[in-house]
Amino acid sequence: MDRGGITLEDDVLIGPKVNLITISHPLDPSTRRATYCAPIVIKKGAWLGAAVSMMPGVTIGQNAVVAANAVATRDVPDNAVVAGVPARVVKHLHVDRSEAATPSISPTRSVAVEPMSRGDRSC
Predict the structure, then answer these.
(1) Three-state SS at 84
(2) Beta strands of the chain (E only): which ranges?
(3) Counted domains in the chain
(4) CATH number at residue 31
(5) Is 25 a catalytic residue?
(6) How do 53-54 and 65-66 pair as beta strands?
(7) What does the pLDDT read at residue 2?
(8) How many Å apart are CA 104 and CA 55, to the nearest integer?
């Protein structure tokens, strides 16, 4: 559900099976049947690995990386790598500001793909 709102800035990478969760329930048993919503923001150039779960109200900083299977329960700073459950900072990236402002894009080229034979199942 995206009742809280989801903002994806430019050049964001999102892996398979990512969960962007903007709705939750209070912990207090007397109000647990209620729900609350909070927005998710993923800033420019961020990368969410496969099977990441983002909880309501979390912002992923510019150029940050969330490792596969991590659960982001708190904001992730710019240029940080986070991993684990809950996600914790494991590394800071050193981004050259001149490169970040002008990303290089390689030209698209076509590649011929040969079909695999039934006996060849290797990757």
Answers:
(1) coil
(2) 6-8, 13-14, 19-20, 23-24, 36-37, 40-42, 47-48, 53-54, 59-60, 65-66, 71-72, 80-83, 88-92
(3) 1
(4) 2.160.10.10
(5) yes
(6) unpaired
(7) 67
(8) 32
- Answer whether residue 108 shows pLDDT above 90: no
86 cis-preceded (ω within 30 degrees of 0)? yes
User: Domain of 42?
Assistant: 6-95
Give the DSSP letter of residue 99: H
Catalytic residue, chosen from 17, 25, 88, 92, is 25
Q: Is position 111 within any domain?
A: no
Using pLDDT thresholds of 50, 70 and 90, give the confidence band for residue 85: very high
Cβ pair 43, 59 in contact under 8 A: yes
- 78 is written with which tokens? 């710019």
